[in-house]
Design a protein that fits this description.
By secondary structure, this protein is an alpha/beta fold.
Length: 455
Amino acid sequence: MTATSVSKQQIQEWKATKTVGIIGLGDMGLLYAQKFSEAGWKVVGCDREEQYETLAKKYADSKFEVVLNGHYVSRVSDYIIYSVEAANLDKIVSLYGPSSKVGAIVGGQTSCKSPEIAAFEKYLPQDIEIITIHSLHGPKVNTEGQPLVIIDCRSYKPESLQFVESLMSCLKSKFVYLTYEEHDRITADTQAVTHAAFLSMGCAWDKLKIYPWTVNDKKWFGGLENVKVNISLRIYSNKWHVYAGLAITNPHAHQQVLQYATSATDLFAMCLDNRRKEFTERIMKAKEFVFGDHTGKLLLDDLILEKYSLSRSVSSESVNSSGNDEVQSPPPNSHLSLLAIVDSWYQLGINPYDHMICSTPLFSIFLGVSEFLFLTPKLLEQTIEAALTDNLFRKDDLEFVIAAREWSSIISAENFELYEKKFETVQEFFKPMFPEANVIGNEMIKTILQHSKRE
């Protein structure tokens, strides 16, 4: 299914006569409000009532209008987008859904669609159409070229989907058409384990009370380490509910996060016991399953990643201890986080390349660094040897395994409160570095994605 052709005259008529409403002016809701209004659409939006005066004053000069609450949005809007936390969606739809304008279209931005659609079907009047969407990226990523899932759940008029497509076209994203069941399975495959890995890394560094790029810790440098540090900080610089919603509300994600924790635990235990044959065979089976059919260039190039370091003194261009200008190689690393992700895909029977059409920037990067580790000549062998015999990262790996198991337990228990508390504890630890990390991370993601698109 592809976007249908609509005349410029029809789009101009819709812009003149239709209103787009956004309930929830958080980071993504605000991104949509700004993009749509700047493209010439009439947009109204709201957040919590207690935020009304502050937001109305803050965005008084913007092209979109801030109103008191969702009732004022729903009664005037022809397309209503719920951009709210997954944990609160049911409550908010029950409150404002019945106020929807007769014949309106409703959608949402949550990363798990099954509970979203259930809420819409439960609380919306039958004359309301349901065409929901999901931009597969965060608010700090350029929307151009990114996947945008469009799910037509309940439409009565052919022009309804055309209207939504025309509205979304200003994002310059790549439309992907799925059912909500397909969406939830694919987003679990492409996001759940990726998030768990980077969340666990950040949590481990917090427990160890180290900033991995600091002067006194000279083992965290090199291309792969730059990715780990920058992406982990990028996740923790966002709002906790973005990741909690996908992990907790999507049952497919539970199994995958649990498998990731299990894979990390199993592999670490083999290293402690020095079960060389068993460990090596398991890694090689995972490599064959995930990368056995790989041909062509790698998604990433280590030279691209080298320059995106937060370190002021340690890089691959550092002067060695003798004072000679020589390239300094990173010390061997077990890369347990990357070994565990590939093992997880193998254990779950997931081929990550099957979902590239719906890949998020983070997923593309994580697949790229995993691919780099497993397919760069001699690097995987060096990693296996380090995991089995080198204690340099052993303490870090222990904290990482504990963190992965803790995140799995929180997600399995569906505990939003504990998720928020744990996330924000780590977030506070890394807070001083977020401004710089986001600048470097944005540039890194831009460069990596451009590189990966080249033939």
